[in-house]
Design brief:
heterodimer; A: 325 residues; alpha/beta; TIM Barrel; 8-stranded parallel beta barrel; 21% strand; globular; B: 309 residues; 8-stranded parallel β-barrel; 11 helices; 35% helix
Chain lengths: 325, 309
């Protein structure tokens, strides 16, 4: 199985390559990708250079064009698709039907990967994407169990990629407007979720409140660490009980299920985290590479190296395990 | 003046008891001035059996009353039995089926169909792809700003476009059931606790501010989206119909408000006033339409208009 690693900056990109990624994914510095954060992503010249650097080391580059095109401004997405192709990207990761059609018609030689944002969660959906756009690979949403994935894999004619490590969307990706309901900015339209521009921390007595837009997302007592107010990881009040209504502040880790994922027919393992710094990328990618190369009994010890990076944070198998539902 | 704009009653997104579900649609058939009614479970396949026994009677009653009935499909399909259910709906070739997931697009290929608000259509290029597959009516995603709506309709004159004009806004769907979890259960042993909350279960912030509502695996807004443009404005956006999404209130009365608005017998302000009277618990919002946070309510700038005149 291939290891697909994130890069938010040229230096993280090189770290990911050096640390053993089979492919690195990244995006342009604009709203054409779903990690449109200040200070992140690549100018065209930086992308060209990164692709060359990776190619010389036999590593692939996937370019994420995984937001939905703004009506009337489609040319920006089309131009980025052509630029990435000309720069030598091995694949484009696309979420929008209109962009998929454009790539299939105008760039038929370019490998097309379907972003998790397209929300293809069953064999019929994947067949639609393969037949209409010649999709070569689909990144599956984090709504499926491993046995669901095995069932899909037996029935479709494309490669499957799944998330194994990093941030966890609780909601079906590409179908969530929670962020824009509170801030006006959404993953689908703007490439951001719970954007920092709309975050405020406010002291309330000895408590710290975190707010997104005009809504309180969490309230921390003095002895609790203050977390970032990602909307679906917030604490809310339902019928007088105060609780993490959707998900605790956990991250995904299914590296202990490698054999099951391989048996399910998964072709590639994806790591979330383009917003992460290069030290994190280096540590995570090298550890995942070592774990992937190791025999099953040795994997847990290798993965325990990453505990320090997620200090105090729990990990979950998420939807891969049925009882998470 | 009667405008050419139509009203569509969207699928009931919540779980109501079988009898209540049937009576709701019987009343719609008898009283509500809507042209199209979309019927069928959209949120959770575990609920399907609740409407099974009355489904044919409801469809018959609606059609006898002159409504066009469309069949809704599931917004999130992961299981084989969910795919089989979709296929059984598609086999009914006498009614327009509304696709809410990519799987339905595959099953409906080459046949006339409608697209529900759960399929991502953010631009004309995407709408054209769907039209080539057989889509002839598209309800646009609720988060789409009016500026995008105008661009899309302009570039696809052959498609009938609809806006999500009334109802709590569907914001997210998950494999996990937050509704069941909030009542100490999981999705697999939920015992249909979502039936206890016919308008969804309120989620307050820790500051006590109403924010969202849980509807099984779906999360909806606390506020009720209310697009109350004058008919001329809606027509100039290239829209052919408005969707009213059922809430736990007198939906026939809601439909009459929108009909009066579209017929220009009342204005936006009076429409908002009447909607607040029909469902006093739900604040109105229209922020998405204005490219703002969805929760916001942007009042019409009467004074500015007055100055312009």
């Amino acid at each position: 199985m291939e290891l697909i690693c994130p890069a938010g900056t040229p230096s993280s990109f090189r770290e990911a390559v050096e640390a053993g990624a089979d492919a690195v994914y990244c995006g342009f510095r604009d709203e054409t990708n779903a990690r449109n954060f200040p200070g992140l992503n690549f100018e065209l010249s930086e992308l060209r250079e990164a692709i060359g650097y990776a190619r010389a080391r036999n590593v692939k580059t996937f370019v994420a064009l995984n937001t939905f095109m703004t009506a009337g401004k489609e040319d920006l997405w089309y131009r980025r698709a052509h630029e990435a192709t000309d720069a030598g990207a091995h694949a484009l990761i696309v979420a929008d039907f209109g962009l998929m059609a454009h790539v299939a018609e105008r760039l038929p030689q370019q490998r097309l990967h379907i972003s998790v944002q397209a929300s293809a969660s069953n064999p019929d959906a994947l067949s639609y994407l393969v037949e209409n756009f010649n999709a070569q690979r689909v990144v599956l949403p984090r709504t499926l169990t491993i046995s669901d994935i095995a069932r899909i894999s037996r029935r479709v004619g494309c490669e499957l990629e799944v998330f194994v490590f990093g941030g966890l969307c609780v909601m079906a990706e590409g179908r969530c407007s929670l962020s824009s309901y509170a801030t006006g900015k959404s993953p689908n339209m703007n490439g951001v979720c719970s954007p920092a521009s709309h975050v405020r921390y406010r002291q309330a007595g000895s408590d710290m409140m975190s707010e997104l837009g005009s809504f309180t997302i969490n309230r921390f007592s003095a002895n609790e660490p203050t977390g970032y107010p990602t909307l679906c990881k917030g604490r809310f009040e339902i019928a007088e009980s105060k609780t993490y209504a959707f998900e605790d502040p956990v991250s995904l880790d299914v590296m202990d299920q490698l054999d099951e994922l391989r048996a399910a027919g998964v072709k590639a393992l994806k790591v979330e985290g383009r917003q992460r710094g290069k030290a994190y990328i280096s540590e995570v990618v090298s550890t995942l590479r070592a774990t992937l190369n190791a025999a099953a009994p040795e994997r847990a010890a290798l993965m325990s190296r990453l505990k320090a990076l997620s200090e105090g944070q729990q990990t979950t198998h998420g939807a891969y395990e049925k009882r998470w539902r | 003046m009667t405008s050419s704009l139509k009203l569509t009653l969207g699928p009931l997104l919540y779980l109501w008891s079988t009898a209540r579900w049937r009576d709701f649609y019987f009343q719609i058939a008898d009283e509500a001035p809507v042209d199209v009614v979309v019927v069928g479970e959209t949120v959770c396949s575990k609920r399907l059996h609740f409407m099974e026994s009355e489904f044919a009677a409801v469809v018959e009653r609606l059609e006898a009353a002159g409504k066009e009935v469309r069949l809704s499909t599931l917004a999130l399909v992961t299981l084989d039995r969910e795919a089989s259910y979709q296929r059984s709906l598609v086999d009914d070739d006498t009614r327009l089926v509304e696709a809410n997931d990519l799987s339905a697009l595959q099953m409906l290929k080459g046949r006339s169909h409608a697209i529900g608000p759960f399929v991502n259509v953010y631009n004309g290029a995407a709408a054209k792809v769907l039209a080539r597959n057989g889509a002839r009516e598209i309800c646009l995603p609720p988060e789409l700003p009016a500026a995008s709506v105008a661009e899309i309709t302009k570039s696809c004159p052959g498609i009938g476009f609809e806006l999500f004009a009334f109802g709590r806004i569907p914001l997210a769907i998950s494999a996990r059931c937050a509704h069941a979890r909030s009542k100490g259960r999981t999705k697999d042993n939920c015992q249909f606790v979502c039936q206890e909350d016919p308008d969804g279960l309120l989620v307050n912030t820790l500051s006590g501010q109403p924010f969202l509502a849980l509807n099984g695996v779906q999360t909806v807004s606390h506020s009720c989206q209310a697009l109350l443009d004058e008919p001329g404005e809606t027509l100039s956006l290239g829209i052919r119909s408005l969707r009213l999404s059922p809430q736990n209130c007198d939906m026939s009365a809601v439909a009459r408000v929108y009909r009066d608005l579209l017929d220009s017998s009342i204005g936006s302000e009076q429409a908002a006033f009447r909607l607040r009277d029909i469902h006093p618990d739900l604040p109105l919002s229209n922020g998405f339409h204005h490219g703002r946070a969805g929760a916001e309510w942007i009042a019409r700038l009467r004074n500015a208009e007055g100055l312009a005149r």
